[in-house]
Amino acid sequence: MPTAASDYAALSEGLKNLLGLSGSPVAFRFAHIKDEIPEGMAEAPEQLRHCKMVSMARHEGAVFYATVDRHLCNGGAWALGLRPLTESLQTGDFYFKLGKFSSRAACRRTIDRIPHLTPGETYATLYAPLEAAPFVPEVVLIVATPLSMLKLAQAALFEVGGRNTAEFAGIQSVCADATAQTFLSGRTNFSLGCDGSRKFSGIEEQEMVMGIPAERLPSLVAGLEIVMGAPGSVKRTG
């Protein structure tokens, strides 16, 4: 696992060049106590959703942290271990009233399976472009086209083979699917995005989301360089 900032900068540059990313890969870390926040790191300027914070690091180069009072989305704050699940989410009423499920029971079955950290175990969440992170990331988040995701999927299997799996529900895609689940499982995960993340953080129609355990990033980028140049590999047109 790389420890120097220059290593992450090189990995970020490699991902950008190979995949033609729009913006930066995003470094993310959970801080369990205040002392884990790097000295001099700025606080989020206002209440924001996790997916919007990821977008700010991705597109604006923002480097900051967010405690529970800076998290606007209750579902995201719960998935990331910042606050307990609200009653309306726990019972299924919230998404049922939004018309996302045919019944409260269907919503409850989905909520019960959403990956999440223990409420209260997270003091703050940390965000930065991967190339500028002042902390060691635990998860790296990438928003990219399906073709780029295909190449990342191939790279993830390059060394040992097997099968990729993607687990998502169409809700809480960036917070639960790409961040919490990746952190808890130690496996890459793909998500199609959700209505909230596409509405509030600018994920485009042609983009998907992927969470990568940071310790897997060096081998994944090494594999990506090879599979991108392999005979028969479909090349980017843009």
Short synopsis of the structure:
Helix content is 39%, strand content 14%. By secondary structure, it is α+β, with helices and mostly antiparallel strands.
Entry keywords:
about 240 residues; alpha+beta; 7-stranded mixed beta sheet; about 40% helix; globular
Written account of the structure:
The chain has a 7-stranded mixed β-sheet. By secondary structure, the chain is an alpha+beta fold. Helix content is 39%, strand content 14%. Helix 2 (50-60) links the parallel strand 2 and strand 3. The protein starts with a helix and ends in a 10-residue tail after the last helix. The model has no long low-confidence stretch (mean pLDDT 93). It has one domain (5-228).
**Separation of termini?**
32 Å
Write down the domain tally. 1
Percent helix, as a range, is 25-40%
**Shape designation:** globular
Describe the secondary-structure layout:
Blueprint: H1 5-19, E1 26-31, E2 42-43, H2 50-60, E3 64-67, H3 74-79, H4 87-91, H5 93-97, H6 104-111, E4 124-129, E5 139-144, H7 146-158, H8 173-185, E6 189-191, H9 195-200, E7 208-213, H10 217-228
Helix pairs in contact: 1-10, 7-10
